[in-house]
């Protein structure tokens, strides 16, 4: 069996976002009923309640560890249940937490070679001392066992695959045309298996489009954690906090004919759960009409501390 712990259910910036006074951020900050704060995008997975693998390492990792006792050191003067980290892209909300894992603790870090190359080019990540931190390439479309730095099987297997997306915001290069230099491997999705019973779930926190290949992969699956960033493509503009559309940021919106609710309609997925939710998205408010629509369509809205058994 796998246990999944949602460490951070919000998109980059969290909810409330530090500088945001849009309706959701404000209500969450004011602690209104039906709201709860959410930290930035990360989940943790275990097969034995002892060793955990992080999927993405958010800038909020310090408080996420503090707030979830499963993540606390358990024995010896130096210990962590966190044995490995798997990255799905190079966005700040997914890699900045690596800097908080720097205190001479053994760790394996798995990522697409594209993401490893940007971490390598940015010397601040040299704080991950290679004597302790082993950077391993994630091969696409090939199932493999996640192992600790010391080579211990963690009974978690992964199959990684490319999904439509975008290069990390901080690496965009306008001179490279309208995809800003995006290359294959900049955004990946993961199928995560228990090696004990082969049960699995999907973790896809960023995805710009439901391709036929992706629809085929997730069809009839048990659980999909999926990109819930925006309700509408132009929500940042209509809530007057920015100009970028979801498509421009590499995210499918939830609603409408090109949205994820529609795209999942006939896929037979048993549990559909939105994750990586932006603070402008009204589904974050329990009493909103958008939340009602989401739930009527069989979706759940993840929250920090949520636990899922696979
Ligand atoms: C995104 O998911 O679009 C990025 O995390 C944006 C960001 O880096 O702030
Ligand atoms: Mn993000």
Describe the structure in your own words:
The protein is an alpha/beta fold and 310 residues long. The chain is 17% helix and 23% strand. The protein contains 9 helices and 14 strands. It has helices spanning 23-29, 61-67, 92-95, 113-121, 212-218, 235-238, 246-249, 260-263, 289-296; strands spanning 3-8, 42-46, 52-55, 82-86, 107-111, 133-137, 144-147, 153-162, 188-194, 200-204, 223-227, 271-275, 299-301, 307-309. The chain has a 7-stranded mixed sheet with strand order 6-5-4-3-2-1-14. It has a 7-stranded mixed sheet with strand order 7-8-9-10-11-12-13. A hairpin with a 5-residue loop joins strand 9 and strand 10 (200-204). The longest helix is centred in the middle third of the chain and has 9 residues, at 113-121. It is globular and about 50 Å long. The structure holds D-malate and manganese (II) ion (MN). Manganese (II) ion (MN) binds next to loops.
């Amino acid at each position: 069996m796998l246990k999944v712990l949602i460490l951070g259910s919000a998109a980059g910036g969290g909810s409330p976002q530090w500088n945001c006074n849009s309706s959701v951020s404000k209500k969450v900050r004011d602690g209104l009923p039906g709201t709860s704060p959410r930290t930035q995008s990360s989940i943790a997975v275990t097969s034995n309640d002892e060793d955990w693998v992080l999927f993405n390492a958010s800038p909020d990792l310090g408080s996420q560890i503090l707030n979830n006792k499963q993540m606390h050191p358990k024995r010896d003067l130096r210990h962590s249940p966190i044995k490995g980290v798997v990255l799905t892209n190079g966005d700040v909300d997914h890699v900045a937490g690596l800097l908080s894992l720097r205190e001479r603790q053994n760790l394996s870090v798995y990522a697409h070679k594209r993401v490893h190359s940007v971490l390598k080019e940015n010397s601040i990540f040299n704080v991950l001392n290679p004597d302790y931190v082993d950077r391993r390439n994630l091969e696409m479309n090939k199932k493999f066992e996640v192992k600790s730095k010391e080579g211990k099987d963690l009974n978690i297997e992964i199959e990684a695959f490319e999904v439509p997306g975008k290069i990390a915001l901080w690496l965009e290069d306008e001179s490279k045309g309208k995809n800003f230099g995006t290359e294959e491997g900049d955004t990946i999705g993961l199928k995560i298996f228990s090696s004990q019973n082969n049960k699995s779930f999907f973790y896809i926190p960023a995805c710009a489009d439901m391709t036929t290949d992706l629809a085929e992969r997730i069809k009839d699956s048990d659980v999909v954690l999926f990109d819930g960033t925006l309700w509408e493509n132009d929500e940042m503009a209509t809530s007057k906090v920015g100009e970028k559309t979801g498509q421009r940021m590499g995210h499918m919106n939830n609603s409408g004919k090109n949205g994820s609710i529609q795209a999942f309609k006939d896929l037979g997925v048993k549990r559909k759960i939105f994750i990586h939710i932006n603070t402008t998205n009204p589904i974050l408010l329990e009493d909103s009409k958008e939340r009602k629509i989401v739930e009527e369509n069989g979706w759940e809205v993840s929250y920090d501390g949520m636990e899922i058994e696979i």
